[in-house]
Amino acid sequence: MKFVKDTITLDELRMLAKNMFGNLVKAVVDIEKEIMVIDGDLHSDEEAMLLEDGSKQENLWGINIYPDMDENTRVEFDSMINLRPAFKNLSRGVDDPKIQEKIVKIVNKLIQK
């Protein structure tokens, strides 16, 4: 697993995807700190890494990144860690469009072409 606090290249994401799941990289994004952890077997492992680093649960969202897709479609909102009724998220996705938009902006800022 790897913290992404500055940037990561698309080529590096492609390599990570190829070595793990083929066409995607799992990630957990902290929407407050605007960082993410990538390349874990499970979103929950990445989430734990961020929590240990001081992130708050309500700011963490699990996604999948498809490096070969364009920046408008490369993020998939699907993770068991997103299922949090206490935070008014009732699905594996990200129910709030504003949070989705913030996640996409953070991911695109962290990915260098």
What characteristics describe this protein?
31% helix, alpha+beta, 113 residues, 5-stranded antiparallel beta sheet
Description:
The chain contains three helices and seven strands, in the order E-E-H-E-E-H-E-E-H-E. It has helices spanning 10-20, 43-52, 97-110; strands spanning 2-4, 8-9, 25-30, 35-38, 60-65, 75-76, 111-112. It has a five-stranded antiparallel β-sheet with strand order 1-4-3-5-6, sandwiched between helices. Strands 2-7 form a two-stranded parallel sheet. It has one domain. 31% of the residues lie in helices and 22% in strands. The longest helix has 14 residues, at 97-110. 32% of the residues are buried. It is of the alpha+beta class. The two termini are 21 Å apart. It is globular and about 35 Å long.
> Which geometry do the CA atoms define?
globular
**N→C terminal distance:** 21 Å
Largest sheet: spatial strand order: 1-4-3-5-6
Number of strands: 7
How confident is the prediction overall: mean pLDDT?
96
Q: Class by helix and strand content?
A: alpha+beta
Largest sheet, strands/sense/barrel: 5 strands, antiparallel
How are helices and strands ordered from N to C?
Answer: EEHEEHEEHE
* Helix proportion: 25-40%
Q: What is the count of structural domains?
A: 1
Unreliable sequence segments: none
Outline of this structure?
With 113 residues, the protein is an alpha+beta fold. Helix content is 31%, strand content 22%.
Secondary structure layout:
Blueprint: E1 2-4, E2 8-9, H1 10-20, E3 25-30, E4 35-38, H2 43-52, E5 60-65, E6 75-76, H3 97-110, E7 111-112
Parallel strand pairs: 2-7
Antiparallel strand pairs: 1-4, 3-4, 3-5, 5-6
